[in-house]
Amino acid sequence: MLVKLKIFRFDPEKDEKPYYQTYEVEADPMDRLLDCLNRIRWEQDPTLSFRMSCGHGVCGSDGMRINGVCGLACQKLVRSFQEEILIEPLPVFKVVKDLVVDLGPFFEKYHSIKPYLITKTPPSDTERRQSTDEHEQFEEAIRCILCACCTASCPVNQNKETMDYVGPAALVRAFRYLFDSRDEGSEERLSLLDHKEMAWGCQTLWKCTEVCPKEIPVTREIGQIKKRIYETKNK
Ligand code: SF4
Ligand code: SF4
Ligand code: FES
Q1: Scanning 37, 101, 160, 219, which has its CA 20 to 30 A from the CA of 29?
Q2: Ligand 1: does its nearest atom lie under 6 Å from the Cβ of 218?
Q3: 146-157 confidence digits (pLDDT tens)
Q4: Which numbered ligand comes closest to the C-alpha of 209?
Q5: What is the pLDDT of residues 221-230, one digit of tens each?
Q6: Which whole-number Å values give the CA distances from 129 to 118, 124, 174, 178, in the listed order?
Q7: Right CATH number for 2-101 from 3.90.226.10, 3.50.50.60, 3.10.20.30, 3.40.50.720?
Q8: CATH 3.10.20.30 residue spans of the chain
């Protein structure tokens, strides 16, 4: 089949403003959008910039806006699209070139939630053990590949007045540690998360959950953080 892609182009070092360029690629219906982008870069236009690595929904590097919805190019089959496909960079972030955005602020926010196990007691002779039931409490959150699709789609992060909100991806990671039975930092975590730019910044609009390529119940997990903050303060 012939696939038509209309792609956002912008090189801040050369272009005065962004523009769109249309490419046509011969593809198998089972090819992914990422295959088409690679073919364009290899066979038609080596100046087209985008990130990719694993090609299989694991590294999280090829997040982009596809027909207005954020997702991974390696997870979209071309047969799911009938007409011309519009490809744009993830919103919210500054464009470095074409589909590549600056994820520095995204990772700064991610690091602000202390994305590591906090322990105060020494480990046993072997390891910090955990039952299957305890592990299941945060199992879904571990699937996060930090693709930033949720944060880019969140209306709170998109609004200039509330863009300091830490965003859903960081909160999924905060959930992962808050609900880990081995973590001993819940007091400092809850006090950090009890803020209008942290858990309370979420307005429960569900956009993050709709786009998450790993099907993580993002909004529900943020809701569980809020519930835990509320219950701890009202004990
Ligand atoms: S929660 Fe989902 S959408 Fe958000 S960064 Fe993780 S994998 Fe991506
Ligand atoms: S549920 Fe919360 S984090 Fe998710 S998109 Fe809505 S406001 Fe943003
Ligand atoms: S290329 Fe790694 S997730 Fe798509």
Answers
A1: 101
A2: yes
A3: 999 999 999 999
A4: 2
A5: 999 999 999 9
A6: 15, 9, 20, 16
A7: 3.10.20.30
A8: 2-101
